[in-house]
Amino acid sequence: MSGRFAGSKIEARNDDHDAESPLSIHDMTVAYHRKPVLWDIDFTATGGRLIGVVGPNGAGKSTLIKACLDLVPRASGSVRFYGKSYRQQRGIVGYVPQRESVDWDFPASALDVVTMGRYGRIPWCLPPRKRDKYAALECLDQVGMADYAHRQISKLSGGQQQRVFLARALAQDAQIYFMDEPFAGVDAATEAAIVVLLRALSAKNRTVLVVHHDLQTVPDYFDDVVLLNMRIVAAGPTEKVFTAENLHKTYGGRLTLLDKAAQAVAGAGAR
Amino acid sequence: MEWDWAIDGWILFVGTLSACSCALLGNYLVLRRLSLMGDAISHAVLPGLAIAFLITSSRAAWPMFAGAVIVGVITALLTQVITRYGKVEHGAAMGVVFSILFAIGLVLIRQVADHVDLDPGCVLYGNIVQIALDAQFEDVPPAARNLACVFVLNILFVGLFYKELKISSFDPDLATTLGINATLMHYALMVMVAVTTVANFESVGSILVIAMLIVPAATAHLLTDRLGVMILLSQLIACFSAVTGHLLACYGPGWVGVDAVANTSAMMAVVVGFVLFVAIFLAPEQGLLAKWYHRMKLSSRIVRQDVLGLLYRWEEMNGESGRSMRRDEVLTVVGGGSLPTRALRKLLRQNEIVRMMDGRDVVYRLTDSGKLAASQLVGAHRLWESYLAKHFHLASDHLHEPANRMEHYITPELREELREQLTDPKHDPHGKSIPSEPM
Amino acid sequence: MVNRRANRLRMVWAAVWVALLGCTPIADAADGHRVGFSSVIASGVPVSGMLASGGITDNSVSFPSWDKIFRALTLRDYNTRIVVIGATLLGAAAGVIGTFAYLRKRAMLGDALSHATLPGIAIAFMVVGHKNLGWLLFGAAVSGTLGVLAVIGMRRVSRIREDAAIGIVLSVFFGIGMVLFSIIQQMNTGGESGLQSFIYGKAAAMLHRDAMLIGGTAFAVIACCAVMFKEFRLVCFDQTFASSMGRPVFWIDVLMMGLVVLTTVTGLQAVGLIMIVALLIIPAAAARFWTDSLLLMTVIAGGIGAFSGWMGSVLSALLPRLPTGAIIVISTGVVFAFSMIFSPHRGVLAGVYRRWSLSHRVAHQNLLRALAECEEDLAAEVAIPIADVHAKRFWSRRHLDRLIARGSRLGLVSQIGPNTLKLTETGRRESRRILRNHRLWELYLIRYADIAPSHVDRDADEIEHVLAGDVVEELERELEQESTIPPSPHKADESRSKGVPA
Question: Which residues 277-296 on chain B approach chain C with CB closer than 8 angstroms?
């Protein structure tokens, strides 16, 4: 970018976030104690896309999500949702935490948990209304869990619990979703159901950012991909960015895993 | 001791109120793993009370509650600060905070003990009888009035904020992202616990407050999987222990031949502890007895299925017309003991095997329905072996063991799925045929 | 009346101060007057006015004379000597074994344990019929152990979690104890007075044999910890590993818990069952702030415990109205608060400073790096338009101005016009060093992404300090060979700042 070009925009750049973009991150650095875990993240998402965030263990994938949602403090940088801060946009941001983050022994049924997704729009002190329950049931049905609505959550399998979480996210009816490893530890059926769901969300012009760890499925699942290893190695449309070279830069050269990924890339290219 | 409704009636009333008001909030403490916070706050309000006494030199309710609220918040806040900034584990941080605050309270109380009628012992275990005796001078003892207010307040708190409390207990991060400030709810709960603790000081005392906060809720959580039901149950348990506690305190010592009256509030704690003890054993799903029963049922089913599978394989190997398996042969393979014998008896009763005499030996054969059940079982076993062999590249002699364990848990749907994935195989890795699914 | 109210308020403050600081009152009463305690603290209140107001003077703590202080400090009095020695040893033993309990995350189990001793004491008293210390402590140890087992059992067999189990055991056992005590009191055997000291503690009433008992226990506990140090460390750190090495983890655990029980039970009379847990937890938690080595931590915790015991007992010898156990606990609290705030590595102040300096450093180094990149773009050591710097980063103009101001204060950049700035000679060296270091790390992360130490601080850690020399050389070679220097991902270049094309 030339200096002159930037100079002409200097006033506009004051807090230069794209108001059109569902998520823009500028210069974000996050540190635990003294050691940074995320460095100078710059990222602008395009609306209505499924975005996969991949990278090796300890690359800061979950931290990226948490820093966006103000759940961990940022050492520098800013995050905007449609040009506004998280505080202002809370209503349009959905979050699916890792499954282990809650206590599944909690006395609640699957329906209860999904209804919680609607709590944001029910005024304080009022109980959920009938239509909230119906909306929640509908969401449960979308993930194929309507039969389990009244089952205690600890009696669901891991995949079913994950689906309940997704149904809850649906009930939130957000514009942009953050999902932390929704595919972790789920069976094939659930994985397929989740993918269908993600596609449906994207068809409704929702933006979904998914932390993912299985390289082989990346080309199949995601429109865009963010390769992350403490800093963004590359970000963009999957077919452009998800290359062997970029993967090498992300994962290093000695991972046998990469061979499989390379095959996957080749397979995606051939398709 | 003579039962006197004018006194004992008040004791029952006050005891029930204090048990119920504590148990109500206790549900959330237990679910949020904050039980020790109840412990910490009930110890830590001591300096708040002492300072309130020192300033007003009276036992008026309002300064006391104000002191409690402040100290409750301080306890929660300090614990948070020490956990976050000192990187001290949460439980230990609470221990640090409450023991120091308690010590400060003790020092302060000693300073004023001559002036204010505040017995440190009373702080720990209350004086419920004194409250009842107050009733002779006033229509309603002030302590009872305070307690009733606090109970109503707690009901309003839990009732109005039911949904907010529920979500911020289950998933604080989600609550916060939905605009329900989980931190705020946390401190609100802590304030309510502090206020309840203070209201209960005179009746049951700080340590027994902990019993009433935690034990009924923990017991209720053993009994149900619904939050609403859990709260109701905790109230019932609290009521029961208050009433039974007082009765036992009055008459219990007499039954064991001691001429004395026990401390009512302490006896309430003992009763509620006993209820929990019983629930640990007898709870419908969580109880030890229920778990033991399910385990027994499962292991006898496994033995039955083992017998069926054994007979099926035997008949498969020896042909329909071949020799039937002898009883002692079955028992050698499945193992002796009462379980296999009972399994055989049950199978006979269910008409899945028949018992015949072959010369002097008892032999067993599968009936048609037995054959069906056995073929499904063996099918599951062999499907699983094929699946393992295909996906995990295990040596063929390593397949049997896992399949043997797995076969008992494979549902018809899973069988179907395996069949689909393996494109309907006819033979397992050992070359044995896989029985097809009966239509 | 107003005066009295004011005095009372002052007294509250005085008491709070004593409680918080555990301090000896300022000595302006060298002549050994009885002085209103509060007046000493709330300086400026005339002593005569205090005395004249009457009413609360009997609340005042009689301020000890120098002579008395001297006698207490030098342990001249037999009683003081006993109490001080007993409390100090108890503090040391509790601090040492508390360290292991704390690291094993068993700290609050100690609370359940101490409360659970009450029914044992009551039953022992009922059975024996009089206050026989040996039997009472034996009863306490048995029921305390039962309490611990109940906590562990409940966690094993039901869905009740550890925190609830601890609360249940401590309150229900205490309830059982109180029931028994209320019955004992009505049985009027006469000997029951003094049983209360087990609840609140009464160190001042310590007898010779109590001190001997505490001394013996302390010696045994510390000796055991010294002998078993290696095993305890292993179990605290990694239980699975310990058992894989064939250590009898269970029995080591039992020994550890046994020592906790022993310390708790002997400390009951001195500190009381409610506060004894403080002696187990607080010295250990405070010591943790000062060191990362277990050995040192144990020693420091023992030291803190001993100091607090000494401090508490001396203070309460001087000021008889102060309950010894509480003062001991408050002393540990003061040490804890001091450690938590001022510890150089883990303290709050250090943490605040670190966070503050981190964001400053990040911003500062980002500026220098941006400047170095600008010079590279311009291919000359000339004045740089601020707009160019701006283009490198998403900084607000105000933020950038602040950074530049800071840079010029440090003599690294100089602003030569309203819209241009220049690196000074030092600034240039520094910024190039940062840029080079950063790119080397960058390269390293790309080449060795799979093994890269995941949390290196790429601007602060000199690459030479972390990596072996040959690796650095190799990286440097690569950096020079690259015909185009790897584009810094932090450049807000077109593709990234515009993000993903749809």
Answer: 280, 283, 286, 288
Long-range pairs for C54-61 at CB < 8 Å and ≥24 separation?
C55/C4, C55/C7, C56/B115, C56/C4, C56/C7, C56/C8, C56/C11, C58/B114, C59/B111, C59/B112, C59/B114, C59/B115, C59/C11, C60/C34, C60/C35, C60/C36, C61/C25, C61/C37, C61/C319, C61/C320, C61/C321, C61/C322
Contacts A173 to B, Cβ<8 Å:
none
**CATH no. for C347-502:** 1.10.10.10
DSSP single-letter state for residue B345: H
- Identical fold at C67-340 and C347-502? no
| C-alpha span between B259 and B248 (Å, rounded) | 13
Q: Is B159 on the interface with C (CB under 8 A)?
A: no
Give me the domain span that covers residue B408: 370-421
A28/chain C closest Cα distance in angstroms: 10
How high is the ipTM of this complex? 0.85
Domain end, chosen from B327, B345, B366, is at B366
Rounded-to-integer distance, Cα B416 and Cα B420, Å: 6
Residue B311 and residue B398 share a domain = no
Q: Which residues in chain C have Cβ-Cβ distances shorter than 8 Å to A248?
A: 446, 449
Pick the CATH number of C67-340 from 3.90.960.10, 1.10.3470.10, 1.10.1740.10, 2.30.30.100: 1.10.3470.10
Nearest to C335 by CA among C298, C289, C296, C292: C289
Q: Are residues B170 and B311 in the same domain?
A: no
Identify the DSSP state of B322.
S
DSSP state for residue B431 in the 8-state scheme:
S
Cβ atoms of residues A235 and A222 within 8 Å = no
Predicted TM-score (pTM) of this structure: 0.80
Which residues, other chains included, contact A23 with Cβ-Cβ below 8 Å and sequence gap of 6+?
A: A43, A44, A45, A68, A79, A80, A81, A176, A207, A209
Q: Is residue B430 part of a domain?
A: no
Tens digits of residue pLDDT in A145-193: 889 999 989 888 888 899 999 999 888 888 999 998 888 878 888 888 8
Name chain B's partners: 3 or more CB pairs within 8 A: A, C
The reply to whether B429 falls in a domain is no
∠ Cα B338 B343 B348 (to 5°): 130
Contacts of B122 (CB under 8 A, 6+ apart): B201, B202, B205
Q: Scanning the structure block, which residue is given the tokens 């017995």?
A: B119
Range with lowest mean pLDDT among A166-175, C153-162, C367-376: C367-376
- The answer to whether residues B344 and B408 belong to one domain is no
Query: What tens digit of pLDDT does each residue of C36-49 get?
Result: 333 222 323 333 33
> Domain end: B232, B255, B281, which one?
B281
Q: What is the dihedral of CA A240, A245, A248, A249, to 10 degrees?
A: -80
| Interval C323-364: pLDDT, tens | 888 899 999 999 999 999 999 888 889 888 887 887 787 788
Confidence of residue A2 (pLDDT cuts 50, 70, 90): very low
Do B262 and B393 fall within a single domain? Answer: no
Q: What residue in B sits closest to A153 (Cα-Cα)?
A: B225
Instruction: Please write the tens of the pLDDT for every residue from B73-82.
Output: 899 999 998 9
Q: What's the pLDDT tens digit per position in B396-436?
A: 777 777 777 777 787 777 788 778 777 777 777 777 777 77
Q: Give the number of other CB atoms < 10 A from CB of residue B233.
A: 22
Residue B428 lies in a domain: no
CB of A112 less than 8 A from some CB of B: yes
Q: Are residues B226 and B349 in the same domain?
A: no
Q: Are residues B84 and B99 in the same domain?
A: yes
Per-domain residue ranges for chain C?
67-340, 347-502
